[in-house]
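Input/output pair, single chain:
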Amino acid sequence: MLDFFIVLLALLVGIVWVIDYVVGWFLKAKPSINTDSTEATTFPSAPWVRWVFIGLLILLALHLFYKRMNDGMLNFSLVLVVATLLTGITWFVDRYFIAHRRVAAQEKRINEPFVVDISRSFFPVLLIVLVLRSFIVEPFQIPSGSMLPTLEVGDFILVNKFSYGIRLPVVNTKLIAVNAPARGDIVVFKYPENPNIDYIKRIVGLPGDHIEYRNKVLYINGQEAQQRYDAPYVRTDRASAYMPIVTASELRENLIGVEHHLLIHPQRPDQDYVIDVPADSYFVMGDNRDDSRDSRFWGFLPEQNLVGRAFFIWMHWDRSRGLDGFSWDRLGKKL
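Output:
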């Protein structure tokens, strides 16, 4: 939801910029000379034409936005970087190369260009959002039930972007190393098979670990991650259609020092697995063990694909259920 408004803002800035330079020349009224006055006058303009054109472009942009989001093809970080650069460059060029000419021409009543005015207004906002989102914290929404019962469909979470190092936006290249991921961390990462898609799982295996998964029990370096039965898990109204859960067992698991809840479906067949985690890679699993596409299916998580560590739920809204999908009891939950 937050990403939607930021992208929309960036699109509006870019659209107005294009309109002013490409279409504006044809729609602006041309000045006429009045010999009886020192001031210039203009013919009446037709502003509705421009706004209709802008409206059509906005509708087209929104359509493409939703299509790209659904296809997992929209790189929002790239959109934000480009929008910030466009507004920043426009403001910089005007500030240091053009503004003095405009000041000298004030007696001729030459107004500040619209594109310069809007760029100066939006550039600081976009720059702040870019810095916050790229280096400090980024919001995500949970689209599936692979992390039940820890995370539900519709949870809006915050991800700490500097937990594992400072990275450049878009290219995701690490500039400064901070901390290494720890066993039990819930991490957001670029899906190795399609980096345009963000995944969220829990780290269970660190570089060099020997991982075994037998009879729905995890073994790390030969040590059992002990499980304790907690309660039956029955599908609630808040469970999404993405996860057709009828019943399951909710357990508490000790990941060699880190306790968390997980779901096991006793009726599902076992998925035994034995592997050694290579250097600079991690073995990740969903808390909904029998309904999670994780390292058991697509392999190891490379260190360079890490985005950050999830730490907070700031809202819950399952959009598939409309207004009924909004819930307060998830607000403020730490992960």
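The two ends are 20 Å apart (CA to CA). The first strand starts at residue 31 and ends at 32.
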